[in-house]
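dumping this here before i forget
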Amino acid sequence: MMHRRKIQIDWTRWLAVVTAGAFWVLAGGSQRWVEAADEVAPDTRLATYETSTGETYYALSLVPQVKTPAVRPCDVIVLFDTSASQTGAYRTESMEVLRALLERLHEKTRVRLFAIDLVPLALNDELVSAGHPQTLKALQLLARRIPLGATDLAVGLREVLASFPPTAQRPRRVVYIGDGISRANILQVDEFRELVQRLVEQRVSISSFGTGPQLDFQMLAALANHTGGMVFVDSAEVSPQQAGTALAMAAQQGVLWPVSTRLPKSLQEVFPERVPPLRTDRDSILIGKFERGDRFSMQMTAELDGQRTTLTWELMPEMSNESFNFLPQLVREARASRGWALPTVGSAGLREVARLISSSAQELIRYAQQALKNEDLAGANTVADAVLRRDPGNPQAEAIKRVIRKKKRAAAPARKPKKKNPLRARTPARAP
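structure:
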């Protein structure tokens, strides 16, 4: 679809830049960790990484073993970004995605369209079928709307919450099409947590299609992570029709909302602090610190389409795996927001975060090498330490540390041999 362009991701306290084409579906259930050798079940994995100081970190992948229809009739509210960034080819593509989405909705699914920039604007009066005259008129109004201003995403989502019928028993879904950038109101962690908690309480799941010259991917992924949604971004290999179809399928999939969860005591820390909803088409991820043991059980009571069900997993911890050496850094960053800022939408999201951490480490390595070349040993040492915090055991950082120690030893003045004091009295020999 669109040409490849860069997405800026402000992820808690560090910045990374990635290419949009690197991930089309960042939550595909078929995408599994390559190193997986599950002994329990192909849908469950408790991967671990043990540091040199003996601390153990884990990544837990969960998929519910329940049979659900591929799609179900839902109430879907579409938030369509009409801010100033959504112009030209981006706007054309987004409209094509929206039309394909509407064509693929279940015949009994009801839909309502909102344009969103500084304030949300309802384009039809109520939830109606995708082929209803109200929906067709809403599409015409949207096509004529000029992209202007900035977006206040929080105001838009609060309006959505108030727009769902309070007594309707249908699953509630939001589909967002846009860049996820809320320039008119940059959400802080506390406001984001409050908003997500309201979405979860009302059982509203958010899936997104990210498009635009820049994306706040952290926002889109965190919303999907905490509400049981999916994230898609534009790609040269995927048509707008395929994207709209994927969005329609994702929006009408089953979402299991945790009501109560009994976690193993060996999971000493758990992030996100509130266990996210589960889906049958992707896994959900928990991370934290771990106390080793042989086998553990986990139980959850979850709500699916208004009905409660009990889920049980038998978890077998794997041996420490160097592929997960990013976990200490990820857990440290997650503590700052208690996991609310985590963009780990399934295994694919976890892999992408790992790649970003590794990319960040490689960029720092280049800075350290340049500092070393300029004989800035203190600067090179500081940067190498930062790399090792992100990527424990990084061989390049450790090599830089060795070179620094060698240079310091070479620069240190040679020790002079101690001169004997001729006035110092000899110790008298002991009598036999």
